[in-house]
Amino acid sequence: MTELGIITHTILSATAPFDLGCSLRALADFRPGRRDISLRPGERVRRAFPHPADPDAAVVVEVAERDDGAPGAGLTVFSAEPLAGPDLDAVRARVSGWLGLDDDRAEFLRRAEADECVRPLLEVARGLHQVRFSSLAEGVVYFTLLQNSTQWYATLHKRRLTLYLGASVRAGDEDFTAIPDLPRLARLSPAEVLPYVGVRNKAERLTEVLGGVAAIDEELLRTGPYDEARAALLAVRGIGDYTAHALLLRALGRPDAVPLEMEQYAHTARAVYGAAQPSPDELRERYGPFIGWWAYTCRTALTWLEQDEKARERSARRRPPAARRPRSTAGSTRPRSAARHPAPWSPNDPGPALASLEPPAASFALSPTSPSSPSPSPAAVPGSPSSPSPTAVPGSPSSPSPTAVPGSPSSLSPAAVPGSPSSLSPAAVPGSPSFSLPASSAFSPEAEPDLAIEPSPDELVPAEVMVG
Fold it and tell me: Could you give the dihedral angle defined by the CA atoms of residues 158, 160, 161 and 163, in that order, rounded to the nearest 10 degrees?
């Protein structure tokens, strides 16, 4: 994708009265071209056009309000290379034709002011100039695909054809694709168009119409006598009365005639005039060669008035925000509830659930002064809080004596084996208080049920030490 880094600023003039805001709002409602533009309502619009000198390249234009407030628009052109004078003039002409800046609507407005049913519509559409398709090629593709079909189908497949066959460029932070011009589209075969259209007869009809319109002088279609231009289009196989009028009005901006007998125009007349609507011939006599602008202005203004009415209804249905009571600075007078215990899964306090799972700690009463006390010394009880000597703890990092290592060939000392049935000697526990147990009161876990406690995993002798 080509990045367009050259920016050219210029201005465009328009025939008064002209309101760019009306043009931007009309573009927002123009469904066939909505996906081809980047629009900021009330501010600006961007779209891509084929490069005037290179059909395989594209430029992007941005249209915004003029700084001096004069009728017209400010034009910014994004291109890959600086545009020469003729190329810039060609881009200016394309944009002016797209937005109808050169349309002289003075006579039409005079006749519309004299029509009491149309006069109220001018309050929202007085400065509206007719927005058209960006090119004759785009109009031919859309209205040919629209035959015996729907608007969404024609819009979708026109967009698909543009994306795959047009030149894609990037301007600023947005991507655009320009639909190719008519001569390039006319060279396509039905097989080349079929993947983008999806239906074989549509592909054949589209290529036939593109080739037939490309063979007509476009200047004749734009500025020649209306009847001759219409007859030239009707001579193309695949173009009927509706398509011919649509191309002349919506693609070329020629308002000389419209088929008022069609239901969509009859519906517009009923919405404007009510039950006393004039006949199609009376409307043609009243507006003459501007009947196409009558149809476009009335339909657009009616749509805007309906949108504004719906917006007002939505605003009226919207509830106002409820008033909030002022917050008291003295604080609440309600008594505070007692603090609840944290949940069992609280990271700060696991709660009573975990405490209920832990076994109660055993308590021992040592009586060093009583020679007949059956309580063992702290060194003889696994898990005692007292600090045992290295020789009393199997697997201690300190260098144990031969008698402190299980499996040593030396005779084991009774003090080195916790729970030994032999009488405990105070000398086995350094720093222990001076007391002695009588020989007849040998320590036995079976004889003392309260002391039959299994050692914790930390106090078990490692397996590698037990291997003798």
Answer: 120
